[in-house]
Amino acid sequence: MLGDLFAALRTSQSGLIANQRALSTVAQNIANVNTPGYSRKEPTLEQRVVDGNGAGVDLTQLKRTVDEGLLKTIRLETASLQEASVRQDYLGRVQTLFGSPESDTSLAHTITEFQDSLESLALEPNSALNQRAVVRSADDLAIRFRELTGALQSLRQEADQEIGTAVREVNDLLTTIADLNDKITRNGYAGQDTSSLQDQRDQSLDQLAGLMDIRVFRRASGEAVVFTASGRTLVDGTANGLSHGIANQLSAGASATGGGVDGIYIGEATAENDISGEIRAGRLAGLIGLRDTTLPDLAANLDTLAGGLAQTVNQIHNRGLAFPGLDAVTGSRTFADPANQAITFQGTSDTRLVVFDGNGNQVGTTTMRTLLGGATGTIADVQTSLDAWLRGQGHGTASLDADGRLEIELADGRTIGFRDEAQVNTPGAAAADAAIGFDSDGDTAVDESHTGFAAFFGLNDLFAADVALGSAGSAESLSVRADLLSAPEGLSRGTVQWDPTRSLTGAYLVSSGDGSGARALATAVGEGTAFAASGELPQVTTGFADYAGMVIAHTASETAASESATARQEELVETLKQKSDSLRGVNLDQELADLMLYEQAYSAAARVMSVMQEMFDALERSAP
């Protein structure tokens, strides 16, 4: 009898304890009804059995109401959302930087202003106001190129800094996840509740998924093993941290493959541990794509445009001259081995050199084929033969400076002009571009072709750049020739003209009112030009201003696409989260119903305990 009473007492006590814990769980759920990341806990009651007989009730581990498959989907879509979001942010800033094609500050508008100034100069070539306007608009154009490219490089630098910040956040999260894994495993083996720790770990995994695409595997012990999408281990017992060296400055030519940009390494910083190319989603993926592809492609578009414009303008500017000619010139092209590097005039092309007096009248003339004694000669041959002719005629000198650049200086108020012609040694022959083949390594094989003698040497460029025009960084370093900025009257406005009526055989001259050079410049800037494929823009033939408009339109299209992708992903992620929250979130009606149920069960168990106490008291009173 007494044993049965003790068994009943222990059974009712287990009911009190189990329902008390269940009530505590309900209270915890209600308290966290608005807590982000909290998953509703369900108390699981289990019959206690001793020697095959019922012995009350136990409250086992609390059950989290989560759908792991749904959480996995949310993390995958969150990674895509964060990637699209960071692209939207940066591209929106680029679009603001580039402006719209019709904007007064857009690159297309600046090119059009340059063309308009050239057309005005062609109408009044002697106007100092028009000359200054051309130089000013050319300088504005170069400044705009430098500003845009510099801004793109600054955005690349910012993206690289954000990558460094994201890597630190990843490492902090990996350490947190590894620490929570350890606590969950230890508490689980000790029979303690781990549901709250699992909630914390899920929140860290959610944050990690926003930074990079991950995969999670759960062991029976409760430990979560984290991998990259490509299978690299991030957390397995311990955290395998990432590393990335932030660049102090990114040049236009800096790239992940070419150098200047550090990788993202897992473990030791070696090439095989670089996972930069393996990160396919998340904020890191967006930043890497911007830094290594999107922004460099836009910079390449600017380099293509700046290089094509400067090359076209320089070629025609070299073909012309200011009145009454050029009194001193220094080429922009350098030659490392002028004694072996050679040029060859192709076909019947030739270049006539004409020396003028202060009034633009011819005082001496010859051709390069005549000086070279044929169609071919080394760079040194060009310099020595030209110097011998100038000195012999008392016109001036020609030399090569320390960098191998051709220098020509005229004496006694004389000037020089260059006229590319289609026929050999024929005064007054129709002007045409001289086709020049260049042997750059001394093996007599033509490996480059150029148009125009003065343009080949860069004797009268308008634009200058620190690197080869059209190559990486040319837009970033584009500038107007320094002496033209201070003396706009040096602009090429006319060309060397042939007058068959002068003297008995005709003569060359430079006219102060000749605007043919300026007209040729305006026409070249406005007409179609062949652009090679650059970045994401295809090969195309169009005007310079139109190409600038294509760059702007492409940027606007990419921005719109990223905005649309971000909006879609936001809607998808929000829908998935609502579905997950409906399952894992706290329903107050349900909790209140459970509260009443556990309260009643607790009261009943307490009543049983009270009855047991009364029975024990009765036994004690009846004892002898």
UniProtKB/TrEMBL annotation:
Compartmental location: Bacterial flagellum basal body; Secreted
Q: Which domain of life is it from?
A: Bacteria
List, alphabetically, the PANTHER family matched: FLAGELLAR HOOK-ASSOCIATED PROTEIN 1 (PTHR30033)
Q: Please verify whether the record's keywords include Secreted.
A: yes
* Gene Ontology biological-process entries: bacterial-type flagellum assembly
Q: Which residues form the Flagellar basal body rod protein N-terminal domain?
A: 9-38
Which SUPFAM superfamilies does the annotation name?
A: Phase 1 flagellin (SSF64518)
Native organism: Candidatus Defluviicoccus seviourii
Q: Name one GO cellular component term.
A: bacterial-type flagellum hook
Write the record's keywords in alphabetical order, separated by commas.
Answer: Bacterial flagellum, Cell projection, Cilium, Flagellum, Secreted
This protein's major location comes to: other
User: Which residues are in the Flagellar basal-body/hook protein C-terminal domain?
Assistant: 585-620
Q: What is this protein called?
A: Flagellar hook-associated protein 1
